[in-house]
# Entry
Amino acid sequence: MDQEQIQINEAAEWFFFSGGPGAPRYGDDPTKHAVDHDSEAFVREVLQNANDQGLPNGDPVEVAFRFVTLRGDEKEEFLNGLGWDDGLGERMRAVADTNNGRRYERVVERVNDPDAEIRLLVVEDRNTTGLTGNWDEDSNYAALVRDELYSSKQDDTAGGSYGLGKSVLWTFSGASTVVFNSHLTHGVREDDSPRLIARSKFPTHQLANDDTTYQGAGWLCQPVETDDGPRPESFWGERASQLAEQLHVERPAVSGTSAMVVEFQDPTRDERPDIEDLAQEFVDASVKYFWPAIYRGDLEITVETSDEILTADVESVPAIRPFVEAYDERTTDAQTLVDPGDVAGLDIPVKLPPRADGAETPDGSVRLSARLASPADDDAYLNNVALFRGAGMVVKYYDQSRVAYGDRNFFGVLAAGEARPEGIPSESDREVDRFLRFAEPPEHDEWESTENLREQYQRGFRTALDDMFGTVRDGLRHLISKGSNSDSLSDNVLNRFPIHGSGNPRSTTSPADPAFEIDSSSRFNGDAWTISGRIEVLLEEFDGWSADISLTGVGEDGSRYDDIPIDSVEIEQSGVTVSYDDGCAHLVADETVNEVSFYGRSHSDEAADLVHGDVGATQLEILAELQTTEEDQA
Amino acid sequence: MQGEATLTDEQLNKYVEPMPGHPKADLDRIDSAVQQVLDEYQEYNTAIDGALAEDIHRGLDITRRTAGDPGLWHWLAVVRYPDLVRHRWEYRSEEAMREKFLGAGSDLYSNAIHRLWWIAELTSRGDDYSTTDAVFANQTMVNKVFDRWFARYQPAVQVMCDELEDEKSRVIDETTRRFNHALTNVQLEGLSEDEAREIIREIVAESQ
# Structure
């Protein structure tokens, strides 16, 4: 370590506000509990923050996740830079003794164990705004470094609007400590860049031999005195640069921020996964949620380990490819899906309520497209619709498997707001985008009615959302159901499940021109089957007709087996003769009879046992045949 | 179907796609078992089934879900072992032969190789294939039990095979038919193995 760096380190110190007597105490950081905290959520939140801070210059936002593992001397030097022995270590040992201290205790052990590694994760974004502004004003810097649950995002297309996403950085730090190194946008103190500061979020704590109660938040900084009291001040320029190098958070001199998570840990896991596995998970999660932004060229993501650099492109995650195709071809005129891989699409109208200030909002539409699945597709998100808007982040995969049937599985995309058009978004696209942004809860994983919507729009926002989703479901059904094949599944199902007891009325002519109307029923009365029915001739002119009535046992799989002999059939009308042949009843009617009602029964079967196959599903079959003057049989 | 044409890899490749889940198989074991059968058994000998079933089942280390994928069986029958299929099944009609090559999926009875695996799957108990062997020794059993829907419910199949092993064809025919009819009243999957055994024993007794 050279002389200059020692001076910097001496100038740097950990600064905590003192709450004073009676100040509220915090056992833990409340924002930690506000979102799910698996690695997928981490990637999603972090990328969303970077994506929102993109500069309006047409260039993509670049994000690199970089895993760094430190041991031995490197670890020592890093801990020196982080001020471990200048306050941080002491604080952490103090909070380790509090109620929520277990995780801190483990970090202290890891720091003190010469054989243990510590793990850093650097999230470096480029072509983003950087940490602009000062402590005492609304700014990026204050939102990230000072505030809780406070968002400075003013852009209507931004993904976030709660200021919650950044909290994952601390949640995934075993030491609840994050270091920021930022290069500011042109014109905003660019010449002083980089800017570096670290922030920890501990529970409220006290130190040994010190009665002061310290607030949880602390900063590795250069404290400055102001008229309003002491304030943490970030490091700038050369000093920041050198400290950044020591802390492995150095970055190229392009606008953006590097956030370094000290001792990266997934709080939902009890094991320490391999970096290689983590890296792959990061790629998968990045593509899963940001493929629209990646595909549109708005976002470039890499994941780096000491061994390799992985690129999160839309081709690298097979489960996502069908969605990309559905989006790519969303403007198709096709409304019919015939072969696997086909894409069809529909406009879904959206009617928005006026804004809260009474300003009218234009009606618009969102674009639904669906791609028919093929057996070759990865089916991880089969029958889901990816919902997203201009920010290019998939808000959720909306499960619509109830719409699918048979082999008509699909992958759907709902491209809303500024994600809808291929060219310049219309005024209504912008308004839909804005509306849906306010429809997202803090986790940004749903479009639903929220407090934000109530603040921003007049009554009707809930109906607008319900209507949109209702139309999406109907539209999806429309797209999926239309096959070229008329042999639809419903026919197959009906054939497989004949409705037992009501007979199976089948006239011998085509349904378009029925010669008979037949009703029938049968039931088992304890020792025999009773049957009844009505046969009516629908034609005016005929010479006479006949009908065969039979009862057949049916197996579980619909297979027919032996006939159940019919013992007797009674007819009320005259002009009809009944004969029996091998268990079947044969009716013959003359030309004066156009309707017959019958009642009958089978031979009784005293041994009838419901579980031994004596009595089971039975089919009553009536085959009727008409004689006409032309002698052709109907 | 009659073996008059040989398909080249080029013709086949566009129809071949990888199985999801990377199932494993010991194809060497099956190759040698198939070769042995082709060498030692006359054409159309039903004993081929019993001679192969255990090797097919042990050689294909797959889940039932994977076994439900028709593509696997199409590949085995059409690409890998077409000679076996034709050695075992005499060509009687295009439709019948089509079933032997291209049946599968929910139809356990049709595809020539699929049926061997499934019957072994449903009748073996761990490493014990004695029931499997007994079933294949009696083609009436194969036909009457495994061409029915209840053949998909293992407890019922195993009981049925145990109880019918030494019965005459007429009893096998009557029992399976009546059981199939009874299942229109009784929920098959609601039966325990013991309950199924009791019902089947009583039906067998009545059928004799």
Q: What stands out?
A: Confidence is low (pLDDT under 50) at residues 1-10, 484-492, 498-512 of chain A. The longest strand of chain A covers residues 544-554.
